[in-house]
Amino acid sequence: MDDVVGRIRQELRQNADETRKKSGERFFKEDVKLYGLTMPAVDRMAKAYYEEIRQRSTHDVFALCEELWRSGYLEEAFVACNWSHAIHREYQPEDIKVFERWVSEYVSNWATCDGLCNHSVGDLLAMYPTLVGDLHRWARSENRWMRRAAAVSLIVPARRGKFLDDVFRIADILLLDADDLVRKGYGWMLKAASEAHQREVFDYVLRNKAVMPRTALRYAIEKMPPALKAQAMAK
């Protein structure tokens, strides 16, 4: 085990809070492993330790991230997400396979899914747009977190008006998904896209509202004017 990872774990244990741990466990429907630290505290820790590794190669940083992911602890996963995003300017197209493996093998709740995909995967797609095709495959996965990842990876680019066609294609694939967290994920993706393409997203919702799960629909129209919301929600 790398010394920096060992010292992070020692600091996490030293600052563990049993009350916060139990509160955090109740926050998730899934079983989660927690030390019991606040996310701002974990973020400060991640940034402080990153100063020690910032000169290392992308390969070495990813290896440290993988070691953190393997522990199964939420706080360690957030450190890994912080570090993998910190080196985003060094990304190469093949890094999509690294992120796909992390989602497939280590992600086990919505928080780590979103923490990785909103930023690391989203920035990778912004740098190499042709990789978005991989998300269409993720959306068809049997793994619920891969399916949610297909949607939430587009949140930040979609807010900037990018990948609209892919947003709709992924929404089509996930439209009738039985998993509530996947529904929320693609609804959130549509909401993000509506910030730059309100009319297009509204038209999409109207075309599909007869079958779109209410959870996804409500997310999709959340930022729209009241008149459009009323029209979308009307029976």
Low-confidence stretches: none
Number of continuous helical runs: 15
Mean pLDDT: 96
Number of strands: 0
Compute the CA-based radius of gyration: 19 Å
**Known CATH architecture of the largest domain:** Alpha Horseshoe
Provide a descriptive summary of the structure in words.
- It is built from 15 helices and no strands.
- With 235 residues, the chain is an all-alpha fold.
- It folds into two domains: 1-90, Leucine-rich Repeat Variant, CATH 1.25.10.90; 99-235, Leucine-rich Repeat Variant.
- Helix 6 (95-105) packs antiparallel against helix 7 (110-127), helix 8 (132-138) runs parallel beside helix 11 and helix 11 (164-174) runs antiparallel to helix 12 (180-194).
- The longest helix is centred in the middle third of the chain and has 18 residues, at 110-127.
- 37% of the residues are buried.
Summarize the structure.
By secondary structure, this protein is an all-alpha fold. The chain contains 15 helices and no strands.
Structure characteristics:
235 residues, mainly alpha, Leucine-rich Repeat Variant, 2 domains, 15 helices, 0% strand, globular
Topology:
Layout: H1 3-14, H2 18-27, H3 39-53, H4 58-70, H5 74-86, H6 95-105, H7 110-127, H8 132-138, H9 144-152, H10 155-159, H11 164-174, H12 180-194, H13 198-208, H14 214-220, H15 226-233
Helix pairs in contact: 3-5, 4-5, 5-7, 6-7, 7-9, 8-9, 8-11, 9-12, 11-12, 12-13, 12-14
